[in-house]
From TrEMBL:
InterPro entries: Phosphatase_SCO2771 (IPR031423). It comes from Streptomyces bohaiensis. This is Phosphatase.
Length: 263
């Protein structure tokens, strides 16, 4: 692990991503990836993350082709089981594109909403991005009080929108929490965000609403990659979104903020 204060070089970050299994040979097995691609192709809305994919991705082999191109999974349709991969070069390239969006938001002092459906892994990254944007003069969207979705509460911690249920933060792929926020803001006389920095259904829902969105997604979560491929989502960064220790994302976060001139 790098010290928190150190910004890794591109090569150092790639080595770290592979060593921490954020990219490279990741923990998500090939069988799980293919099962999710099949569910999306079969029209299961749970796997669409709030993105309207219509009937354009009804062939799972087309989904696999995009995932090979944008995420770096094995492109061979005959590889049905065992190890699968995320290309660390694509992860860093995604971070560079995300940094460009963050830098533009900071320069414009944009109104930004950060959100995560993976609080066990990615909350600290989102919180650091939110704090850096606030320090750069951006306005962080405050989640209206009293919002509920999926039998839980939509709330905010350290500037990051999250889903809470039973006094605990929950992992969720649902677009419903973001939908509730975007519906409530105009009702309270608040503007929608200029930029959303999020993952899972939070990102998919915002992108579908036409908001410039940076998203993060795992190799078994194809919807956001398809959304980037179609131009609905601005950036999708491929990564394993829940490795064994959330501190393993610290070098990646440091690289992202430095590339955006927000460190």
């Amino acid at each position: 692990m790098f010290p928190v204060s150190r910004v890794p070089s591109r090569d150092e970050l790639i080595d770290h991503l592979v060593g921490a299994r954020i990219a490279g040979d990741v923990a998500t097995p090939r069988e799980n990836n293919l099962a999710h691609y099949r569910e999306l192709a079969n029209g299961n809305p749970y796997y669409w993350f709030g993105v309207d994919l219509g009937d354009r991705w009804s062939d799972e082999q087309d989904v696999l082709a995009v995932m090979a191109e944008l995420c770096g999974v094995n492109e061979d349709p005959g590889h049905r089981a065992g190890q699968d991969t995320i290309d660390p070069e694509l992860t860093v390239a995604g971070l560079d594109r995300a940094a460009a969006e963050l830098g533009k938001a900071a320069a414009d002092r944009s109104r930004v909403l950060t959100a995560t459906g993976h609080p066990g892994g990615l909350l600290d990254m989102h919180a650091q991005v939110a704090a850096a944007l606030r320090a750069a003069g951006c306005e962080l969207v405050r989640v209206p009080l009293g919002l509920t979705a999926d039998q839980g509460v939509v709330t905010q911690l350290a500037g990051v929108a999250v889903y809470e249920r039973g006094a605990s933060l929950w992992h969720t792929h649902s677009p419903a929490p973001m939908s509730e926020i975007l519906a409530a803001l105009p009702q309270e006389g608040e503007a929608l965000p200029d930029l959303v920095f999020a993952d899972h259904g939070w990102a998919g829902c915002a992108a579908q609403r036409g908001i410039t969105t940076v998203g993060f997604a795992d190799s078994n979560d194809p919807a956001l990659f398809l959304a980037e491929h179609e131009g609905t989502l601005a950036v999708c960064v491929p990564l394993d979104d829940h490795v064994v220790n959330p501190r393993f994302y610290e070098p990646m976060t440091a690289y992202l903020l430095a590339a955006a001139d927000l460190d």
